[in-house]
Amino acid sequence: MKIFTFRVLIKSFTLPALFTASLLSSCNTASTTQTATDAAADVEAVAVEAVTVAAAPAATAINRNPEVEETLWNQHASMKTTINSSNVGSMALNWKYATPTPVSHTPLVDETGIYFGDWGGTVYKVDASTGKLIWKKEIEKPQTMWPWHGFAGTGTLGEGKLFEASVEGTAFALNPATGDVLWKTRFTDDTEAGNLSTLLYHDGLVYIGVSSVEEPMTGMKKDFKPDFQGKVVALRASDGTLAWERVLVEPPHNGCAVWSSFALDPDLNMLYFTTGNNYTGEATNMSDAIIAVDAKTGQVKWHNQVTQHDVWTKADQKGPDYDFAGGPQLFVADVNGQPRKLVGAGQKSGIFYSFDAQTGEKIWSTNIGYGGIDGGMHGEASIGDGSVLTWSNNSYVHTMPPDKVKISVKKLNAATGEHQWVVNHAQPAAIVPGYLANDVYFLGSLDGTLQAYNAKDGKQLMTTKVPAPIISWLWVDGNNLYFGGGVPGMFKWADKGENGVYAYTVKR
C-alpha cells in the first residue's frame, strides 16, 4: 500500500521524486555507529543473500557519464556540491516559503529559480537564494476528500518546459518563466487514478507512473470494489499527446500501481520502474516487481518479481503490502572482478535488491530493517563511491508519533551488498529518501528531525529540527539543501500548519 509518495527535481536533465503518505519530536543525538562485524550481532542486521552470478553479457564498454549518472540514473547523490563533512556543521535555515497545503513535491532547481507544487493544486516558482515568490498558478482543482490530492507527486524540467501531473489525472506543461499553461492532457480515463510518482523527462518524452486512491478508498466506502490497472504512460513533451502506454495488469485483475520514480539508461535504451501490490483477487506476476522497458516504445525487456501473492487493500489485508516504495537506481559495480551495470531498489519489506541492468538477473539482496505497511524502505538509496547508503523504518505505523520507532541507517558495498557500517536507532521514522552530498549523508524524519552523517563511518555531523514533518525528497544544489514539508490529515499526532518549502544553507 502506498501511503504517499513524492519525488523530485532536477536541473536540465530531470529526475523523479516520490512521496509516501503514511508514515518525526526532539533531535535524536544518541545514534551508535557500528562496524559491519559488530552489526552482525544486532537483531536489525540481517545477512546478505549472496547469489551465484553468471558472467556479464557480452556488451560494449560501460560508458561513464557523470551528468547522466547524477540525473537519469536516479542516484540521489552529488559530488559537485560545496557541502562536505568539514562545513556541514555550519548549515542553518536560510529561508522558508509557506504554503496553505502540504508540499511533498520535491523542489526542482534550475538557474532561474525553484519550482514546486502543493496539495492544493497550485504550482510555484521562488528565488533560490531568498525564497521570494516569482509566480504561482492554481492549475488543478484537487479532490480534497481523497487521502492525497493535488500535486502530491513531483514534476520535472525539460525541453524548456516545466511538466506536472496531478493525483486527479491531468498532466500539464508550463512556461517556466511565467507559469502559463502551454498544454494539458488527461493521461488516464480512471476517475480514481492519477500521479503520485516523480516524473522523468528524456529525449522528447515525459514518463508518468499511474497510481490510484482506490486502495485506501476500500476502507472509506462500504463495499467499494477496486478496478484500477496500473500503468506507465509516455507523453510527447511538445504537445502532451500519448507516445505509448504500458498496462501492467489486465481485467479482472487489478492493482500494480507505479508510485515511485524512474531511472533511464540511454545506452541500453531502457526505462526502469517498480510496482506495488495487487488489490483484490489473484496476484499477477508484475506486482511487487522491478521492470525494464524500451524507453521509446514501452515494450517489456525484462521484469523480476520479488514478492509473490501480495494482495492487499485497507479493507482486506491479505498480503504483506510490500510495495516497492523506492524507484530503480542505476550504478556500476565490480561484480566478481568485472564491471557490471546494476539496477537496485528498496522495498517496504525492508530489503534492498540489486539486478543486472541489461538482463534482470538478480545479483544480491540485503535486509536494511523490519518490513511492514509503513515499515521497510520508503524511498530511494543514495549511491556514490562504490557504496549504497540507505535507511529503513522498523515496523512503523503512520498513526504513531515518529519518535516511537527509530530508523536503521546502513552503508552497503555496491558490488556485494555487505554492510560497511550500521547506525541503529538513528533518528525518528521517515518516509522520504536521503541525499549524499560528497561525504555527507542527509536524512529527514517525520517529526522534522534533519540529520547529517559522515558517509565514511556513520558518525553524526549535524542535527537540527524543522517545524514540520519532512515529506519530500531532500535535494542538494550548490551549498543549499532544499525540501518540502507539511502536515497531511492522516498525521493525527502532528501539529497543524507549517506547510511549505525549506532551504538550509552552509554559512561560509
Automatic annotation (TrEMBL):
Q: Which cofactor does it need?
A: pyrroloquinoline quinone
Under Gene3D superfamilies, the record lists:
Quinoprotein alcohol dehydrogenase-like superfamily
Instruction: Show which residues constitute the signal peptide.
Output: 1-30
Kindly give the Pfam families that the UniProt entry links to this protein. Answer: PQQ, PQQ_2
The family line of this record is: Belongs to the bacterial PQQ dehydrogenase family.
Q: Which UniProt keywords apply?
A: Oxidoreductase, Signal
Q: Which SMART domains match?
A: PQQ
| Glycosyltransferase recorded as keyword | no
Where is each Pyrrolo-quinoline quinone repeat domain found? Answer: 254-365, 408-483
* Name of protein: PQQ-binding-like beta-propeller repeat protein
InterPro entries associated with the record: PQQ_b-propeller_rpt, PQQ_rpt_dom, Quinoprotein_ADH-like_sf
User: Among its keywords, does the record have Transmembrane?
Assistant: no
